[in-house]
């Protein structure tokens, strides 16, 4: 089960709203949706998203700045349509792909596609989730400090499991307003 909510930080405290992600296809779409949730474009908006018991994500939007993203378990999120929105190539440490040029490239090291490079063992990732796309890390990815200035430390963020959205809201002092949209 998925849950997504927006928390907007205003002069009067946090305001919460639930959100539908059906029309959201990219991180930019999600950031635009979050910006529309607040009257003041300079306010901080958090998108809290979780697939209960598997992974959670936090997207922070500060005005027109690029979104900052944290995902608790990239491998689990990669198997989710909503997780794929957050797992941009940049977040995973990859170069953005241009599908039109990928088809024309050949494997220059002489190995066949999918064959591990014998010298480096590059494809030997014993911690990898067999159901996740290749190269997806098994643990947290992104900006682990995105909530530090709001009172949630990196250590606290990494320790969250289960109902992480409620735990984050509680740490932010926004549990009551989040409860109204849950």
What does this entry look like structurally?
The protein has 182 residues and is α+β, with helices and mostly antiparallel strands. The chain is 25% helix and 20% strand. It has seven helices and six strands, in the order E-E-H-E-E-E-H-H-H-E-H-H-H. Strands 2-1-3-4-5-6 form a six-stranded antiparallel beta sheet. Strand 1 (2-10) and strand 2 form a beta hairpin. The longest helix is centred in the N-terminal third of the chain and has 10 residues, at 27-36. The model is unreliable at 99-126 (pLDDT under 50).
Number of helices: 7
Write out the strand line-up for the largest beta sheet, numbering strands in chain order. Answer: 2-1-3-4-5-6
Regions with little confidence, pLDDT below 50 for 5+ residues: 99-126
Helix content: 10-25%
What integer is the average pLDDT?
82
Radius of gyration over C-alpha positions, nearest whole angstrom: 18 Å
Beta-strand content estimate: 15-25%
Q: Tell me the span between the first and last alpha carbons.
A: 13 Å
Structural class of the secondary structure composition? alpha+beta
* H and E order: EEHEEEHHHEHHH
Describe what is shown at a glance.
With 182 residues, the protein is an alpha+beta fold. Helix content is 25%, strand content 20%.
Ordered list of secondary-structure elements with their pairings:
Elements: E1 2-10, E2 13-18, H1 27-36, E3 44-51, E4 55-62, E5 68-71, H2 74-78, H3 81-86, H4 99-102, E6 141-142, H5 154-159, H6 164-172, H7 175-179
